[in-house]
Design brief:
By secondary structure, this protein is of the alpha+beta class. 39% of the residues lie in helices and 17% in strands. It is built from 8 helices and 6 strands, in the order βαββαβαββααααα. A 6-stranded mixed sheet has the order 5-4-1-3-2-6, with helices on one face. The protein starts with 7 loop residues before the first strand and ends with a helix. The structure holds S-oxymethionine (MHO). Residues 16-18, 55, 137 line the site of S-oxymethionine (MHO).
């Protein structure tokens, strides 16, 4: 594990942000996920007033456990990079945080085009700023899981959005992760047995 200042950050637009929030949240090495709006110029986007922004997932990761390359592979594999989304809200975009990310992204894009013979419509642009989405969009899969969602949101309170464990659980209820990962996370939880049982049933 590395100190917070050595963590990496990655930001991807992959269509509706609920799915990528869960997918990245289940990955080893991902320490935090947030969903929000980015890639536009409108000063204070909200879900119902996005302006020119796009739904994105913002991932903080431990580079000793997972690389930017690996995160980006997951990005390509899980959005429709070959078509232009009808709404800018759902466009594919890789928002790069530094020159290294930019280079990795342009290289992977070229490789993808070569391999498939299709042209990539997903944009690669410098990251500017993330506008955090409304609470009800954060960890949406978990939050909308009956019983468990409400109880965990109440237990964690303000820590819900940024918790690593909550990110994992959000991924697990969406069907991601391995049995080993699930058992490890469950074993680390200090929750009433009834809630643990309820969670286990949702994986
Ligand atoms: N198809 C989804 C999109 C929501 S996403 C946060 C829905 O409206 O249910 O854009």
């Amino acid at each position: 594990a590395v100190s917070p200042s050595e963590m990496g950050a990655a930001t991807f637009g992959m269509g509706c942000f609920w799915g990528p929030d869960a997918r990245f949240g289940a990955m080893e090495g991902v320490v935090r996920t947030r969903v929000g709006y980015a890639g536009g110029t409108t000063p204070t986007p909200r879900y119902h007033a996005l302006g020119d922004h796009t739904e994105v997932v913002h991932v903080v990761y431990d580079p000793e456990t997972v690389t930017y390359d690996e995160l980006l592979e997951v990005c390509w594999a899980n959005h429709d990079w070959a078509s232009r989304a009808p709404k800018r809200q759902y466009r594919g975009v890789v928002l790069t945080h530094d020159d290294h990310q930019h280079e990795v992204a342009t290289n992977q894009r070229a490789t993808l085009e070569e391999r498939t013979g299709q042209s990539v419509e997903t944009a690669i642009e410098p990251f500017d700023q993330l506008f955090l989405a409304e609470d009800y969009h954060q960890k949406y899969e978990l939050r909308s899981t009956p019983v468990v969602g409400d109880e965990l949101a109440a237990q964690y309170g303000d820590a819900f959005v940024d918790s690593t464990v909550v990110a994992r659980l959000n991924g697990f209820v969406a069907g991601h992760g391995t049995p080993t990962q699930r058992n490890e996370v469950l074993a680390s939880l200090d929750l009433p047995p009834r809630l643990l049982e309820e969670l286990r049933r949702r994986f």
